[in-house]
Design goal:
TIM Barrel, carbohydrate metabolism, 230 residues, 8-stranded parallel β-sheet, alpha/beta, single chain, globular
């Protein structure tokens, strides 16, 4: 998946001001964000409800950058086609919600989207191994999903390094994305540990200068980025 060169900052609109959503997105893109991240929550798999395909379609109409849709929902197979039609470029599902993960990832590809698989902090990385043949991206949750503004779980650095080593050993080409607690203060450490894509929500959209904050995170991430992505 080569839509842009890592490291990538992908601002999450979960933290945006929905009264001024288009303006917030434009500021983030002006700051150098080549992706926009959409967190979809159903109130069942995670203890929060966010938004659905209609909002994703609105985001698609507001920007032509890469649209990264993260489904934190039960039974995601029922809704994949809806998000593909809404304009998603990448659809990520959770290993914890997909009993037939290979088939789900293949279905995403058949709809013309890139396919990602996400994993929660408490789930063993080994559960991913069999699905990596079909994944374009692995999303490592660095907080327990459900709410924005949480603190980065420090054990995630070890998990990042382990996932990066797994990618090297298997000679795979998936991107590694992190979501949760990302800011300019830890972006360098995160990319140094192995991340290619950094999702940042509150640190970007709660800033008084969205574009400058994206630029600051991007510069911090790039300063220590070491790519083994093939």
């Amino acid at each position: 998946m080569h839509e842009t060169s890592p490291p990538v900052v992908a601002p999450s609109i979960l933290a945006a001001n929905f009264l001024h959503l288009e303006n917030d997105i434009r500021q983030a893109v002006d700051g150098g964000a080549p992706w926009i991240h959409c967190d979809i929550m159903d109130g069942h798999f995670v203890p929060n409800i966010s938004f659905g395909p209609d909002v994703v379609e609105t985001v698609r109409s507001a920007t032509d950058v890469f649209l990264d849709v993260h489904l934190m929902i039960e039974d995601p197979d029922r809704y994949i086609a809806d998000f593909a039609r809404a304009g998603a470029d990448l659809i990520t599902v959770h290993v914890e919600t997909c009993p037939h993960l290979h088939r789900t990832l293949q279905s995403i590809h058949e709809l013309g989207c890139h396919a990602g698989v996400a994993i929660n902090p408490g789930t063993a990385l080994g559960t991913l191994r069999a699905a990596l043949e079909d994944a374009d991206l692995v999303l490592l949750m660095t907080v327990n999903p459900g709410f924005g503004g949480q603190k980065f779980i420090r054990f995630s650095y070890d998990r990042l390094r382990a996932l990066r080593l797994m990618r090297q050993e298997l000679n795979k080409s998936f991107l590694i994305e992190v979501d949760g607690g990302v800011s300019r203060s830890n972006a360098s450490d995160i990319t140094s540990a192995g991340a290619d894509v950094l999702v940042a929500g509150s640190s970007v959209f709660k800033s008084s200068d969205i574009a400058s904050e994206v630029d600051a995170i991007r510069n911090a991430a790039g300063a220590s980025y070491r790519s083994d992505y093939v």
